[in-house]
Amino acid sequence: MAETKKVLIAEDSSVIQNLTKKILMMQNYSIHSAKNGEQVLKALESETFDIILMDINMPKMDGMECSRAIRAFEDKEKSSIPIIAITGNAKNYSIEDFKDAGINEYLQKPLNFDQLVETVKKLTN
């Protein structure tokens, strides 16, 4: 049987975090969560993930800043983890802004959960 992929959901909205968690758990992903960018970096100190779902607007450290910090890690495995940005205001950012921050893909809120699952599968295979 295939190894269970580990997903880190960085999202300050409990509702979105719980819905996303349930959807991905039904797809047999192992889910970990964080409420802000600082918690993401702390989680990465002790664990490795197969993918990160990164809310762009979070308290303490936003998703863009957190993504840049991850890409700056010396540990190549951790610095290259695929990152999917999740944002309600993608209009404020260009594709180039996301790429410059090291983000692989972005999804618009409200989330299309079929698209979420498809994107996570694509980036973890």
TrEMBL record:
Residues 6-124 form the Response regulatory domain. Gene3D superfamilies: 3.40.50.2300. SMART domains: REC. The modification 4-aspartylphosphate is found at D55. InterPro entries: CheY-like_superfamily, Sig_transdc_resp-reg_receiver. Signal peptide: none annotated. It comes from the Bacteria. The keyword Phosphoprotein applies. The keyword Iron does not apply. GO terms for biological process: phosphorelay signal transduction system. Keywords: Phosphoprotein, Two-component regulatory system. This is Response regulatory domain-containing protein. It comes from Marivirga sericea.
